[in-house]
Amino acid sequence: MDAFSDLIRGVRAHGSLFGSSVLTAPWALHFVDGAPLTVCTLLTGEGWIVPEGHPPEPLRARETVIVRGPSTFTFVDEVGTRAEPIACGEHCATPEQGGTRHRLGWHDGAGGPGTTTLIVGAYPARGEISSRLLDALPVVLRVDAGDDPDPVQDHLAAEVAVDAPGQQVVLDRLLDWLLVCTLREWFDRPGGEPPAWWAAQRDPVVGQALRLIHAEPAAPWTVATLAKRTGVSRSTLAKRFTELVGEPPLSYLTGWRMTLAADLLVERRTATIADIARTVGYADPFGFSAAFKRLRGTNPSEFRRAATV
């Protein structure tokens, strides 16, 4: 388990939040639900993504844009379009009315010259784990079309053109594939500034330490045991980890444990504080509560009550 896999594992596509459409100008689709993450990929044509409070972003064929909420955004044929905005959200594709084959308020033409084919997937991305990923992203990130065809987009184009059993599951998984590939390409872009944990994963020593922490967060890790498993001295590990990640190994471990604990407190409402403490590596619930309050500013019980109101 690596840091990126851990952070993105709670981000999954869901059928009612998926939509596709063939559009003929003029158009203006206003995505009103303010999803934490929305993936927009253009199979054909071109248009503009206009995020609330941010400059417009052009979107051309075979390009992908990810919009981070909670701000809403509009997809238009051109900036200043004369089209009246159509409100779109989770009800633009309702399963009881045919799932992704039925888009309320979207123009469904037969395609052809001058049309634009848009694929949209909104992600709920709830919880503290997902927040760590969202915090590393700008409001809008884009990945330009490459020189070679994107197999994910090819599969999406083929799947939306048919109506077959299991189509929704296929579309959801393809959209998840597109999201992961887009984020990886954006983090690795030339001249980019990826989050520290992303770049640190490439280091043979620090990357291995991060994988160990994420694979076994409840293990009784010390700098010495991590150093032994990565094949370096304690001082070498501590220095390189702090330089690349921005904090010492055990500080990172504690922060990650508290992130896991925050989600567990909400997801496992019948679990005791002692149960949660043991799950994230604390034999003493009082020590766990003290660490949680030090990092979160509130104790675990208060956090759970506030999150479940």
Secondary-structure map with pairings?
Layout: H1 3-8, E1 18-24, E2 28-31, E3 37-44, E4 46-51, E5 57-60, E6 64-68, E7 73-76, E8 86-88, E9 115-123, H2 127-134, E10 140-143, H3 151-160, H4 167-187, H5 196-200, H6 206-215, H7 223-230, H8 234-245, H9 249-267, H10 273-279, H11 285-296, H12 300-307
Parallel strand pairs: 2-8
Antiparallel strand pairs: 1-9, 2-7, 3-6, 3-9, 4-5, 4-7, 6-10
Helix pairs in contact: 3-4, 6-7, 7-8, 9-11, 10-11
Explain what the structure shows.
One of its GO terms (molecular function) is DNA-binding transcription factor activity. Residues 207-306 form the HTH araC/xylS-type domain. Keywords: DNA-binding, Transcription, Transcription regulation. With 309 residues, the protein is an alpha+beta fold. The chain folds into two domains: 3-187, Regulatory protein AraC (Jelly Rolls, Sandwich), CATH 2.60.120.280; 199-307, Homeodomain-like (Arc Repressor Mutant, subunit A, Orthogonal Bundle). Helix content is 41%, strand content 17%. The chain contains twelve helices and ten strands. It has a five-stranded antiparallel β-sheet, covered by helices on one side.
Shape: globular
Strand residue content: 15-25%
How would you name the CATH homologous superfamily of the largest domain?
Answer: Regulatory protein AraC
- H/E series: HEEEEEEEEEHEHHHHHHHHHH
Major beta sheet summary: 5 strands, antiparallel
**Low-pLDDT segments:** 91-110
Approximately how much helix is present in the residues? 40-55%
InterPro entries: AraC_lig, AraC_XylS_family_regulators, Homeodomain-like_sf, HTH_AraC, HTH_AraC-typ_CS, Tscrpt_reg_AraC-type_HTH
Pfam families: Cupin_6 (PF12852), HTH_18 (PF12833)
Domain HTH araC/xylS-type: 207-306
Keywords: DNA-binding, Transcription, Transcription regulation
